[in-house]
Write a structure and sequence with these properties.
Nucleotidyltransferase, domain 5; 2 domains; 13 strands
Length: 379
Amino acid sequence: MPPAYYIGLMSGTSLDGVDGVLVHFDGPKLQVLATSTLAFDAGFRAELLALNSPSDNELHRAALAGNHIAASYAQVVTDLRHQLIQQGGDAAGIRAIGAHGQTVRHQPQRWADGPAGVGYTLQINNPALLAELTGVTVVADFRSRDVAAGGQGAPLVPAFHQHVFGQPGQTVAVLNVGGIANLSVLPDNPAEPVLGFDCGPGNALMDAWCLQHTSQPFDADGAWAASGQCLPDLLALLLDEPFFSLPPPKSTGRDLFNRPWLQDKLQSFAAAQPQDVQATLTELTAHACADSVNIYAKDAKSLVVCGGGAFNHDLMRRLQARLPEIQVSPSDQHGLPALEVEAAAFAWLARQTVTGQPGNLASVTGALGPRILGAIYPA
């Protein structure tokens, strides 16, 4: 019997574009058969950034952005389908697409008692259009059900991390560094609950500062940060943000860690050299992530790093310096390339949904219990 294929599509808080993978789960471990990426152009990236805060006519603009994302997703699906056919696979065997969408609001906290006070999370997307364009069943809006059940709606990847990176008899920590950084703690005993939460900013602040001062969308290899010096007083001010001291479950996003937040913190550092600020922002990410590992993954011997941050050599160096007893390495060395992990996670979540299985972990999000996530848009 031929395998059932699943596609995972992810456009994360780094706002750099779409990552797509085509996988199947029928063997002892997942098999990635095809990958594809599509960068967002500068104009659309600016529009997504604008939609992260209140703006004029934002409902209309958000709807158009959702159409744009669906069309981008469909282009990636077409590429993945062609790669599968070239390998001799049957494109009709693609069971479902897991389409995350683009997060523009993440407010999971409860505002008041009763259903009207439940928090929310919003990902721009048009899954109906994506199903129409591809002819494939689409699963989308993964986070809302967890929030409705009292959870944070994020992170959702720890269950997948356990599936791929978990090792009986060894505690493993997995750090995903996208726009926001999140940590999964996979216990040595599979019977024990998995822990996971957002640590704070990943690449979001570094990318924003780099774009502002170098016109480059990110600090390639962390070279610019490596040319500067960390400013201890600024780092202390940045770390004074209350989010860092909150216990799990917790999640965050650009609602908090954004350019206005950074500009407010920099008011007393107007004379600072831009490269020193970049070095400090890189140290902020390393500090927040390493502290999380030291507090919640004391027994871990390995930190598996995925997401775009795995390519920031300066960040990886800073993480290793703060975690001298732990081997810090990219997920490529553990069987799955760093830029494929999140997209593969949403392929796995799509499979969970269409097969009627829960996708969240209450121990991670704080939800009332396991829930089948997402809404299904039939082909």
